[in-house]
Amino acid sequence: MTTLKELFDRCSWKSKFQGCLPEKPNEIIYQWGEDEIEFAAPFFTPTGMRIYIEETNVVRRSLYLGQDVNGRHVLAVREQEKEEYRAGIPDMAAAYANILDPDKAEAFLRDKFKV
Questions:
Q1: Which has fewest Cβ within 10 Å: 5, 39, 98, 103?
Q2: What does the alpha-carbon distance between residue 52 and residue 46 come to, in Å, rounded to a whole number?
Q3: Cα–Cα distances in angstroms (integers) from residue 107 to residues 91, 100, 103, 104, 114, in the given order
Q4: Which of the 8 DSSP states describes residue 74?
């Protein structure tokens, strides 16, 4: 049977931490114990690792192998939203509002696409 350590070692992510868990529990998106390996294993197959990647344009993920507060060995995935993604939201919201305003839509599109 596969162990948490084997799944941890199989993962090709660069951001991996052994012997600890994230300082902020609210950043843990997934956490599995030894008794939950069948739920974790699909994430660490070749297909799973192509789908569930370390970094997207929105988030960065890290993998941890450590003990929870009860002393149970767990494998955890930490997910943090990128600062640069959050910084772009006001511009996206303003652009969306301009598109929804019929009086501004034509001018916005003309300016944006230099038509």
A1: 103
A2: 10
A3: 17, 12, 8, 5, 10
A4: E
